[in-house]
Amino acid sequence: MPLKPFNENIRLVGAHFLVWASILLISFFSMLQADGAWPSALSACISCSFYALIVYGNICFLYPRFYQKKKIFPYVLGSLVLLLIAGFGRGYLSLYVRNVAFAAAPHWLNAWGNITFLLSVSTVFILSFIFRLAMAYFTLKRQAEKILLQRSQFELRLLKAQVQPHFLFNTLNAIYYEAYMEAPQTALLIERLSDIMRYFIDQSTKEYVQLSTEIGFLDNYIALEKMRIKPEPEISFQCNADDQRKIPPMLLMTFVENIFKHGIDKISGNNRIFISLYEKDQHLVFQTKNFLNRHADPRQQHGLGLKNLHQRLTILYGTNFEMNTNEDDQYFTAHLKFPLT
Q1: Helix, strand, coil shares of the chain as percentages rounded to 5?
Q2: Can you give the pTM of this predicted structure?
């Protein structure tokens, strides 16, 4: 698996090489009969160099920096500058080489010659733009396929884990009613556990869930975690968002799970957790903050859940999200922001 990206890069470079080699040969043989071998070879090399400047200048610099960010005027201005540099550069460099090395008498470009060179590089630019749009389309298509594959794999793993779920829920209900008569608090915890399991089975395979459902899932998870931690951690959960909004399931869980997995100091018992959820500019912002665990096991692995969450967000939103963590002398802070539908 680690060799796959490297092999893909090798194939991509090879494909680019073949394309430019083909263009170079076509240019060379189209001029060979009229100009001879050396003039044709030099002209073909100069033309391909400026064509490459246009193509990669557009698809690697102008398009991602301006067009993708909806900065149309800078994109048009940059494109005009690129076309002028490439068009006149190609024309006058070709003519200079021909005059110095091959021509019996010097020749200079007239107005029609300048227009011809500008039209030729403009054609190449338009083709590069169409090619870049095609690349964007296939990238989005590949991301969509990854999402479908990830969802299918997740559902398959979930189905494998569902060992007679109806039997399990019926058993939990029976235990709940028995416990309710003797220990109502225990019965409440059983009910929360049942709700969590029902969320995994009924909701987590959906493309979107209501924010209220996700918040309820977090509340149940926090309640169960508080039960096993003594002294009980002090938790502040502030929510200022429309709970009818819809988000992909399990996006908020990782930060909270990370706190209880790595941030709880069972020795000192000094555990304060701050959780906030709010809307800002059609985005959902989720933040968690907890005291550093001074007695954490250094051998314990960190960051796998956060890494998986970042990969999932990339598949869902591309670069249109923010996710970062910060650690100072006292607190560990996590921040997540992604667009709302």
Answers
A1: 65, 15, 20
A2: 0.51
